[in-house]
Amino acid sequence: MSNYIAMMAKRKIWIITTIFLAVLTGFRCLWLLYNSASHYPVATKGVLDLRGWDSLTKHSIPLNGEWQFYPGSFQFHDGTRQPDNESPSRWIQVPGNWKLEDGTNGGDKYGFGTYRLRILVDPDQGNAYGIHISSTKSSSEVYINGQLLGHSGQPADNKDGYIPLDVPYTTYFDLGNENKGEIELVIQASNFDNSRNGGIVRSMKFGPEDTLRKDLTFSTNMIWIACVVYAIHVLYGIIIYLVGGRDRRLIYYSLMVVCVILATLLDGERLLQTWIPLPFGWGSKIENLVALSGGYFVHQLIKDKLPSALRRRAARAYELLCGIAVLSVLLLPLHAALLLQEVYLVLMLVPCLCLALMMFRSTAKIDADNIFLLLAAIAAFSSMIWLLVLNYLHIEMISYPFDLIIAMICLSVFWSKRYFRMSEATRQLAEALQQADKQKDEFLSTVAHELRNPLHGMINISHALSERERHKLGKQSANDLRMLVEVGRRMSYTLNDLLDMARLKENRISLHFTGVSLHGVASSVIDMLRFMTEGKAILLNNRVPAAFPLVYADENRLNQILFNLLHNAVKYSNAGEITVDADIHDGWASVSVTDRGIGMDTDTMKRIFEPYEQAASSQDALRGGFGLGLSICKKLVEMHGGTLTVRSKPNEGSEFTFTLKITADRAAEESAIPLIAAADAVSEDGRTEDARMPVHDGTYTPSSDRIRLLAVDDDPVNLNVLRTIFAEEHYEISTAFSGEEALKLLGSGEWDLIISDVIMPAMSGYELTARIRERFSIAELPILLLTASNREKDIEAGFRSGANDYVTKPMNATELKTRVQSLTHLKKSVNERLRMEAALLHAQIQPHFLNNTFTAVSALSRIDTDKMDDVIEELTNYFRLGIDLPNFDQAAPLDRELKLIRSYFFIQKERFEDRLQTVWEIDDNVDAMNIRIPPLTIQPLVENAVSHGIMKRSVGGEVRIRITDFGQFVEIRVSDNGVGIHEDTLKHILDKQTDKRAGIGLFNTHRRLMQFCGSGLKIESELGLGTSVSFTIPKTKPSS
C-alpha cells in the first residue's frame, strides 16, 4: 500500500512539473514570437526597405539580414559615400560571427572590417531616427550618411592602435532634406582580443527616435523590476537570518539571488557596464565569476541534503573545481578564459540540476511543501537554459525576467507556508510547554508540601539527638549531625523558595505596604545569617544609617529580599566584607548588597534572574540550591514598583541594587502593620494613655504579686498598644525605644518577661535577644519576639538567638496575653526552684553545722558556762534568721543577712578560736536596712570562704567582708587568704554541671543574683594566696 501511495505521489509530481514547465515554455515562446524578427522586414543584399511599413511608428525593429561587408578595410570613414574599388565586399548575415565566414578575412577570429546597410523609409514618417547597438566585438564606430555619430572603443587596423570596448550605446540623428527617404548606415569594427566572437554579434534596433526611446525604456524598466524583486528576496533572506535561527542557508540563498541580480545587469542591455566604466574584458570575467559563484551558492544550499558519501567526495571535488575555475578567470588572459566558458557554465548548471532532482525526491518522500522548491528550481533552470540558447543563436529580445520572478514567488510561497506551519507548530508547542510548565510548578509545589513535614521531622530528630547525646558523641559524629541539620535547613529553604515561586506565578502573594526601617530590616537579616559565616573570614556590615528614611514596602517581603541577596552573597563568598548600603535618588531608596566573592561573567548576569538559573561552573553547582532566590527577589522588587539590577566581574565580586519608594513618617504610621488585629482592639474599656502603667523611672520597688514586663519597640504606637493590653492590675509594664535602652534597664531590677520587636534600628530584636542571653538563660528571663514574618527562616533566627517564643503581627490580643502568662509562669517557676534550691542547700549544711556547734556547747558546759550561754543565744539567732520564712521571699534587707553572718562567725570563732579571723569593712553611709538582696546570698559565700578556704590551711586565716557604697549601687565582697582555687576549676566554678557542693552553692547564688539585678558573682582567686568573691546590688528608695 505504501509503495502504491509513493508511486501515485511521484506521478502527481510529474504531472505538476510537466504542466508547470509547459506553461513556462509557452509564455517564453509567446514572448519570443512577439519580439521575433519574422514579424519585421529583413535586409536583402545590403538594403532594408521599410517603405509602406506602418508599424515602424509603433515599434523599433531589428536590423537583421544581409549586410554588405568589407573585410580587412575601413570604408566610408572620410566623409565620402563611395567605397574603395580595391577593397572587395561580400554579403554577411547580421547578427553573426565574422570568423565563420569565408573570404579575405580567412575565417580568422581576429581582424577588422566595415559593415554597410542602406535603409529606405517613407519621407512622410519624419526625419528623427535612432539606432541602438547592443554589442560589437570588440570596438566599433557608427557612421550615418557619412557622419560619425557614435562609438564604443576605437577601431583600428592593428592591435596596437585600437582601443577595445564593448558596451551598448545609442545614437540619434536627423535625416535632413538632402537625405529624405534613405539612410546609409556604416559600422567599422575591429577585434584583437575576443577569441570566440568578432563583429556584430547581437541585433541592432532601429526606429523613430520616440519609438526607440520608448522601447529601450521598457526594456530597462523590465530589468529594474526584476532586480527590485530579486533585491526584496535578498532583504528578507537577510532579515530572517538575523531575527531567526541563524541558518547559514539563508545567507547562501541571499548571495545566490545577488548573483542573479548581477547576471541580470550584465546581460541584455548590460546596464552595469553602462553605469560603471569597467576595463575591457572585466565584463566577461565578472559574468563568469557571477556564474561560478551562483553555482557554488546553490551547491552550499543543497550540500546538507546530499547523501553522505556524495557529500564527502563529490561536494569537495565540486568546491575544488570552483576554486580552480575562479583562479583561472582571474589569472588567465581574456582570450584563454573565454575558451573555458563552457566549463564555467557546466559548473553553474550542475548544482541547479541536482537541486531540481533533489527537490523531486524530497517532495515525493518527505514534505509536500517542497513542491514549491522544485518548481522554483525548474523555473530557474529554465531561465538559464533559455539564456544560453539565445546567446548561442545570437537572438536579441527584450529582457524576460518572468521565469526567475516565478522562481522567487515559488520560494516565497514555500517559506511562507513553512513559516505559518512553524508558527502553528510553535504555538502548539508553546501551549504544550506552558501546560508542562504549569504541571511542573504544580508538581514542585506538591512535592515541596509533601517533603516539608518529613524534612522537619528529620531536622528536629537530628537536632534533638545532637543535643541529647552531645556528651557521648565523638567530635566527628557531632560534626556529622550538625552538618545533617544544616543540610536539612538548606533544603527547607529551597522548598520554601519553590512554594514562593508557585505563589508568585499564580499571583497569590499580596503585599501590605507600610513604612519600614531599612536599617532595622538589614540588621535583623544580618543577625539571621551570622551562623553561615562560621568558619569563613566574612564580615557582615550594615552601612544603612539608623536615621535613614522609612521605605514604603511590605516588611515581611523586604526581609525576604534582603535575606535572599545576603544569603546569596555569603554563599558565593569565602572571605571579605559583605555590606548593605543605601542612598536616596529622586524620592527612591537605592539599596545595594555588595560582596567580594567569585563574581559573574556577562552571560551569567543576563540569565541570573531567570527561575532555576545558576552559575554554570561545577564549583558553583556544588553550592546547592535551585536558583530561585534571585528570581523571587526580582519579582518581589517589581511588585514594590522598583527594579533589581546587578553589576559584577569574575573574581572581583558582585553588587546587587534594588530600589524602593521613600515614604513620609506620617504616611508610614497610617499604613503600618497594626500590632493587634482590628477585631481584637483593646480600647473598648475607654482606657487612655494616662491610665496606663508608668514607664520605668530608674528605680525599682519589688512586688511579689505583679508581673514586670519590659516592652522594646522603636514605634511609639506599638508601645502604647502594649501598655493598653497589659494595663490590668497584676501587670507592670515598662518600655524602651531601642535595644541599647533595654539593656540599660535590665540592671534596674528583676524582670519577668521581655517583649521585643524584631525590626528596630541600630540593634535588631535578634541581636538584643543574643545580648540578653549572655546574662540570662531562657528560663531565667523569657523573651517574646514580635515579627511581621512567619517564614521559617525568620522564626529559626529568633530561636537561634535565644528567644522563647514569637508572635506574628498583626496578633490576637488574647493570644498575646496567653503567651505572656505562659512565659511569666515559667519565670516564676524557675525563681521558685532557685529559692527552694538555696534553702535546700542551706538545710543540707545544717546537720554538720549543728553537730559541730553542739559539740562545742558540750565542751563549754564543763569549762565556761557563760560562753556556753552566748553560743546558745547566737545559735538561736542563726536558726531564726536562716530558716525562718523570709528565706522564701524575693528580697530581704541587707541588715538581716549581716546579722545571720555575725551569728555564724561567733559560733565558728568558738570552734576554731585563733585559726579564724574576721574583718568587717562597711562604709558609714551604707543603709543596711533599706538595701534589699536575695536571702541567703552572702552567707553561702562566707561558709565557702571558711570551709573551703582558710580551714584548708593548718594555721587558718582571715575572712574579710567589705561593703562599699558607689552611689547608685553597693558592692559586697567576701575575701579570704586561704588556699585559693586552681585556674581550671575557676573557669567552671559557676557552671551548673559542677559536682562540688561549693560549686552548686555558688551557681545558685550567681543565678539568683542575675535574676534579681542582672549581674552575678565575680570571682578572683590565685592558688595559695586566697579568693575574693564580689557582687553589686542597686540601691532602692527608703521605705516611707
Write the layout of secondary structure elements.
Blueprint: H1 2-34, E1 47-49, E2 61-62, E3 65-71, E4 90-94, E5 111-120, E6 128-133, E7 136-137, E8 139-144, E9 147-152, E10 169-174, E11 182-191, E12 199-200, E13 205-208, H2 209-243, H3 248-266, H4 271-275, H5 282-302, H6 308-312, H7 314-331, H8 334-339, H9 341-365, H10 370-392, H11 402-468, H12 475-505, E14 514-516, H13 518-529, E15 537-542, E16 551-553, H14 555-571, E17 575-585, E18 588-595, H15 602-607, H16 618-621, H17 629-639, E19 644-649, E20 653-661, H18 665-671, E21 707-712, H19 716-725, E22 731-736, H20 739-746, E23 753-757, H21 765-773, E24 783-787, H22 792-801, E25 805-808, H23 813-863, H24 865-883, E26 892-893, H25 894-912, E27 916-922, E28 932-933, H26 938-948, E29 957-965, E30 969-976, H27 983-987, H28 997-1013, E31 1018-1022, E32 1026-1034
Parallel strand pairs: 1-5, 15-17, 21-22, 21-23, 23-24, 24-25, 27-29
Antiparallel strand pairs: 2-13, 3-4, 3-5, 5-11, 6-10, 6-13, 7-12, 8-9, 8-11, 14-16, 17-18, 18-20, 19-20, 26-28, 29-30, 30-32, 31-32
Helix pairs in contact: 1-9, 1-10, 2-3, 2-11, 3-5, 5-7, 5-9, 9-10, 10-11, 11-12, 12-17, 13-14, 13-22, 14-17, 20-21, 23-24, 23-28, 24-25, 26-28
